[in-house]
Amino acid sequence: MKLQLALLVFGLTLALGQIVPRRSWCPAPLSPRLPRLSVPVRLIVIHHTATASCSNPHQCQSVLRQIRADHLRRKFRDIGYNFLIGGDGRIYEGLGFGIRGEHAPNYNSQSIGIAFIGNFQNGLPPSQMLQAARTIIQIAVQRRQVLPNYALVGHCQTKATACPGKHLLDELRKWPRWQPKP
Ligand SMILES: [Zn+2]
């Protein structure tokens, strides 16, 4: 029992260590006035950023800053996503947990938004990105930010958009908690 607990704590620490903190890519701290998300939520919405892809931390950090700047121009409060997956296979903190995103109108207060950096209309993300997405979902469940029986959907299932790209959506359909409707 003690060993199991030790392994669990170890596994959790490893998993948490995989989230790259926001301060690594964004000099501006989150405003304390951002609306909170009441957790656990029942929905995970998957996006692609429809930007350039990135393949190393330096590039990914730069793309993250561009995405945030674009969202601010569009009058979002901050970057719209809770987490982003880099082409380097790392999980980047956007808004993080507990903050209501601006990524899926009508569903923002019931969901966490996870975005794959790049455009997946014409191809699938590399396997390390898919693995990173599964990891952040697992962390979200472990930290009780989403319900264990959450529904996983692509953005295009909540409104008319190409996001997260045809190939990525086809992949998500095979995941255990994917649902045809949000
Ligand atoms: Zn989207």
From TrEMBL:
<dbReference type="InterPro" id="IPR006619">
    <property type="entry name" value="PGRP_domain_met/bac"/>
</dbReference>
<dbReference type="Pfam" id="PF01510">
    <property type="entry name" value="Amidase_2"/>
</dbReference>
<protein>
    <recommendedName>
        <fullName>Peptidoglycan-recognition protein</fullName>
    </recommendedName>
</protein>
<feature type="domain" description="Peptidoglycan recognition protein family">
    <location>
        <begin position="17"/>
        <end position="159"/>
    </location>
</feature>
<keyword id="KW-0391">Immunity</keyword>
<keyword id="KW-0964">Secreted</keyword>
<comment type="similarity">
    <text>Belongs to the N-acetylmuramoyl-L-alanine amidase 2 family.</text>
</comment>
<keyword id="KW-0399">Innate immunity</keyword>
<keyword id="KW-0732">Signal</keyword>
<dbReference type="InterPro" id="IPR002502">
    <property type="entry name" value="Amidase_domain"/>
</dbReference>
<keyword id="KW-1015">Disulfide bond</keyword>
<feature type="signal peptide">
    <location>
        <begin position="1"/>
        <end position="17"/>
    </location>
</feature>
<dbReference type="InterPro" id="IPR036505">
    <property type="entry name" value="Amidase/PGRP_sf"/>
</dbReference>
<dbReference type="InterPro" id="IPR017331">
    <property type="entry name" value="Peptidoglycan_recognition"/>
</dbReference>
<feature type="domain" description="N-acetylmuramoyl-L-alanine amidase">
    <location>
        <begin position="31"/>
        <end position="165"/>
    </location>
</feature>
<dbReference type="InterPro" id="IPR015510">
    <property type="entry name" value="PGRP"/>
</dbReference>
